[in-house]
Structure prediction request, 608 residues.
Amino acid sequence: MQEPHENDKLHRIRHSLAHVLAQAVLELRPGSTLGFGPAIADGFYYDFILSAPITEDDFPALEKTMKHIIGAGQKFEREDLPGPEALARIEAMNEPYKREYAEELLTREGVESLSFYTNGPFLDMCEGPHVANTRELPKGGFKLRSVAGAYWRGNSDNAMMTRIYAWAFESKEELEAHVKAHKEALERDHKKLGKELDLFVIDDVIGKGLPLWLPNGTVVREEIEKLMKELEFAGGYQRVATPHLAKTDLYRQTGHLPYYAEGMYPFMELKEQGEDGAEVVRETYVLRPMNCPHHHRVFGARLRSYRDLPLRLAEYGQVYRFEDSGALSGLLRVRGMCMNDAHIYCTEEQIKEEFLAVMRLHEDLYRILGLREYHLRFSTWDPDDPKGKQKYVDNPAAWQKTQELVYAAMLDSGIPFEDGKGEAAFYGPKIDVQFRTVTGREETASTNQLDFAVPPRLGLTYRGADNGEHHPYCIHRAPAGTHERFVAFLIEHFGGAFPTWLAPVQVRVIPVADAFTDYAEAIVARLRKHFVRAELDGSSETMGKKIRIASTEKVPNVLVVGEREKQDATVTLRRYGSRDQSTLSLDAFEQDLLRRIRERELDRADWT
Prediction:
């Protein structure tokens, strides 16, 4: 869902309602402090430091106050003030977060004046635009949605604020239609379906953010891994396997420690007794937060020639990142993850074609899976960021050069993308593939990065055609991201009803009576010889209930067999999502099933 342009009527309605919400909160929680309150894709939110907590139980009172404000017919009036006067105004408002932002605009951004909007007793520093009068706002067109925590300016070093989300549309009918669609979408939430379909579990005894893959979920991740290994083999990748931990010296050499130390698990010190009897630290290890340092050591394990390039090293590598506990969310945000990683070492002349080949690999993967609702972000360096030297390698010329190379490659690809200034990796620009979860949250599913900095830092070289030593460029890529996040997207994309090739149980055979169990068992055994995930439902439940259970578990193919099927060597097939059933020979079913699995057919038209 796209956010309306700021000049659109709906954007003005949503932005104005955010001010109305802030006014209502200050009435019910006097002494609260304001953060930001923008319009978003389906409504708006506002951030606060509250004088007393607000929960969803308070929403009826808040909505009632908001409707009263709307009915009062308050005018939205704008005032522009030069810098010193604007700061004085904010000082009088006693809003420290607004002041911080205002000072940044006036100093770093070079803005000469700031705008303020007043509606009734409420005053806010704001660019606008707004409606002219609160009576233009639809009383029945908004609904408070949820309360969440959010760091000021999105930085975990800053204060945690309370964010109140709301939906907003031009009419009550549009709002109700959206809320209904949202509720239906939540039925596809990966956390809900993960539990119902026995895909994964987060066990507090194991640890937060460390998912246990159950047998059904393990099938899904292994099928995706199998697919990626096939695509990578066809693309000329070579597989490697590397350990889950390394000495901290490796991450100092690569330069990761200054940028990622806060996201790494605590260091493990290996101690031994010194000559004087005191304990001394002999070595320090850390669980790896990324695979690339290990792959760099593989590249450096022997002398390389330009004839070896491009060298494409691939691994499904397990990594660990100590995410803040408040950010953890099902499989989307975890602390232990298995990444579809690869690193392509190449010359400057090879960058464009290799980068394009990776983007084509992304497209092949998404086409096979029927994924279409995503967009690409060209994440670049921000040379004006005051924290730039802490965030990025300080080499402006290299940044400019590599960003131009990636930009040219993306233009040639014909794939549309948007700019993401300031979102680059510390060592180079990247293309991020962005999806939205069913709850509307945008997440990065996969990435393709160009690294100019780390190979030279590690002394990685190859002998060129000129017989001289040269540093390679490195393309980091992960089309399927991590198993955890990618499977979360797929659970929601398919609503848990995976196509046959990906389904944990591909075929369930149900005999109509015990007398036909032997025929059902023979079918299961025959299919399993072809590595089909087939199983028998030999329970004592009625046939009707067995069929309902198979539907609840979203089994894509259910075979019902009885006297006629046994005599004729046939099966009666019921496909998930269809009320129709058909009887066909076992041979014909088997041939079609194996073809659909082999071709990774999506099964249903609405998945394509």
Observations:
- The longest helix spans residues 9-28.
- The chain has a mean pLDDT of 91.
- The two ends are 19 Å apart (CA to CA).
